[in-house]
Structure formats: structure tokens, C-alpha cells
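Reviewer 2 asked us to include a model.

Predict the structure of this chain.
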Amino acid sequence: MKITIAAMVKNEAERFLPLALECWTAVADEVRILDDSSTDGTKDLLNEAGVDWQNVSFDIFGENAKIGRQALWDYACRGSEWVIIMDADQTFVSDPRPMFEHVGQGSIGFPLFDMWSATHYRDDAWWNAHKRPLSHVFAANVSDHHPWEWDAAQGHMHYPKVPDNMPTPVVPGAMQCGIAHWAYYTPELREQKWLQYGRIEGLSARERFHADTIMDPSPHLTKMPWDSEWSPLTTGD
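Predicted model (C-alpha cells):
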């Protein structure tokens, strides 16, 4: 069993990439990164971590997000068995490898927790990816499911990380392991995200409302069911 974690990054050296690399290199056989021409210390971090990475320069976080996702998927799948596409601000809560023992083919879904602090995650109608771990982050066995098929119609805020013809993930013991998403970890980060979404043109009313919920002054939070092996607290950030 070979596990490959892949991600797109751009100027992440001062954010959560050091933490993510620590996690990813601990649980994966190989880490592959597409760097969108970072100008900070991101490339140095990738070299220090000893991961496989390539530089690209076609705005994979802007107008070419769909192209970037497809390019990352193709890059990740070369010679791989299990592929997990993650973001530079996501870590596993605990070692996911025991889950693979129960699934031979197909996909494994992971609940995703949008962290509002080091210990609590957002838990309400608009922030509930931890309750439906079939559409955000999952491990896909890629050996028998190509050529890949991608839907031409994409949303404005989020682009699919995997092709449409990947099998629907199963969730064996879904609460055994989850993904911690640190993008909203502090009030400052939440405001940055809200402003970022505010600059996106063409958002639907639903997408705009969802973005505005980031700044809810009294969100409903729930304590994580685990003590995370990889968190800002463990690294002293």
C-alpha cells in the first residue's frame, strides 16, 4: 500500500505549511506539491522537508483553479496507489493508516473539522463537513479508475479536488480519524478569509451568505473528540 498526499501551495511559509508538512511526511509514503511561484520561503520549506515538488506559474488559485486541480491530480497519481488531496492548512488529527486496512479499493472519506480555535470546531448548519465526510477530503485508490472525467461546470468558491468518476467514498469508522482545517483558527484569519471571498466576483447569493457567516460573532462551537497529534499548539505557533 502506497499513500501519496498532494497539495497546491502559494506563499504558505508563514502560515500552516510547516505543520502540514510535519503531518504529511509522517503518514504518507510520498508528498507531492505544486507550488504556484511562491515568493516567500515556501520553496525552502519544501526542500527541507524532502518532498517532491514542481513550480508552476499559471495562477492555480485564480482563474486557472480548475486547470490547477487537474494538474495536481495527474501529478499525484503517477505511480501511486492511494492519493489524498489536501490543502496547505489541513492536517490529520491522528494517524489515518489503520483505516486503510479495512478498504481494499474505492475511496475512504474523512470528516473535516473547521477549527475555530486549537480545541473547538465550528458546528452549525453552514459548517458541518464533519457530519458528511463524503465530499471534502478522501483517500482514493486510483489504480483502476482512469481516464479521469471532470465536470465543466464549476463553482466560484470551491473546485472539486478529484475527478467525477472516482467511486463514492466509504466511511469505515468515520470518527477514527478526521481532518483539522486551520484556515479559520484565529479571528485575524477569519477576517482575512472573509475579505478574500468578498473580492470574488460572481458569487451566488448562497455562496455570499456562507462567506458572511465566517464573521458570525457568536458561532456554535464544539470541542474536538480527540487531542490532535498535529496542531499549532504542538508546534508552538
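The chain has one domain: 3-235. The CA atoms of residues 126 and 210 lie 7 Å apart. We have added this to the supplementary material.
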